[in-house]
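[Amino acid chain]
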Amino acid sequence: MAPAVPLALLVALLAPGLGVAFPGCDYPAHLWCSSREIAVACQAESRCANLSRPAATPVELSLFYESLCPACRMFLVQELFTAWLLLPTEALSITLVPYGNAEERNVSGKWHFQCQHGPEECLGNMIETCLMHEAQNFSTYFPVIFCLESGSSVSKNLEACLQVYAPQLDGGRIAACVRGDTGAALMHRNAQLTEALDPPHQYVPWIVINGKHTDELQAQAEASLLGLICRLYQGEKPEACGGSGAPKAPAGCRR
């Protein structure tokens, strides 16, 4: 009788494209790519083109800010908006909470707000909150907020910013929200979200990444938010992070 040929050697001879079976792989070679679990057990993932990489969750960033705080405006305009422009929605998800160091009090069943930089800031916070409520879609309202925060007046430039970035939105409806009970209720919700922060916020902008705030994350976000998101995102790196689709530096101009 001819000597028995080990299974791993037989597989290597008959299916060299798949390689050799490993301990824990009790499946024939033709099944190695039938599921991710089997491919992992047989260490054949790299050879199974049909098994797509599992989708990674986006990095979640929440910005707690106030509309007239200079540091808040700088971070939103220079770091946050730039990162949002460069990164796909699969990599970065943003929540904006305009309230910051404001205080609220209930007078005869109505909410009243006092803001760090005065009534103008309260109005700016309310405009941006009602804008988000009216637009719903982040990609619709964030360019408008960028326009407001980068301009000369957060409270006076709404119509001009809408005309450029979101002409489909009704400025009258946003103004009605600002003046009415809806705006007050929305701002009260922002107050609750801000007061619920753990640890409590000590300053603004207060940046929360994937549900956490630390001094280190805050410093990294303020120094280079794009770099931080690129490091934290677990999916295939986008072009802006130097991923496989990023343009390569041109070669030198030889004589």
Notes: Confidence is low (pLDDT under 50) at residues 5-17, 245-249.
